Amino acid sequence: MEIAQGAAVEQIYARVFRELRPRTPVPAIQVQFRRYANANAQVKLEDGRLDVRMADTLAAAPEPVIEALAEILLSKLFRRPVPASSNERYRRYLNLRDVRRSLDQVRQVRGHKRVRPPQGEHHNLEEMFEELNFQYFHGLMARPTLGWSRQASRAMLGHYDPSHNAIVLSGILDRKETDRLAVEYVLYHDMLHLRYPVEHHGARRCVHTRAFKEAEKQFERLKEAKALLRRL
Ligand SMILES: [Zn+2]
Known about the structure:
Order of helices and strands: HEEEHHHEHEEEHEEHH
Number of strands: 9
Bound molecules: zinc ion
Helix content: 40-55%
Number of helices: 8
Strand order of the largest sheet: 4-5-7-6
């Protein structure tokens, strides 16, 4: 199937415009691909010009899908009923396995992470970060985004996400019965991930480098903290 790009997309919009408004001269049409997090698109008619903005994730969509989307957007613009077949075709495309998967990936990288703010119900991650920063990093570490995950995962107690520069701790740690020391240790571990990035040795990826492990040993009451986590 053919892939629609720039000029081809303009032609599609011109064609759909003529079908919907046969008596109105077709305006100048400008198509822009934008880096949206979702498969979004919008049209605007302003000063006799039709502005089409589409997520760049749609640039690879086959022509009939781009056309279906044009029918949806222009019908809405002119307050006409959206043809059911266009809705159906566009939705079916978004549901294709590969399309869904690549949208998920884009959303992960570009979208906002859904995390709860650092001031949890029982532990405050910003306050804890500053104390650890002062004690172990001479206060020199720039504070990343901090937050609690919505899922109370036991398998992943925390992680540092370089694409968002964020440290996210599992909601399971924000409980009254969770000792502050256990939370501090998990946070410290993830601060070390920020401090000592992943190293690549050929094809091997080293997440916990030697320097990382040495630094982790500096944590006071390390054994006690690890024992607390085992009991979670
Ligand atoms: Zn780790």
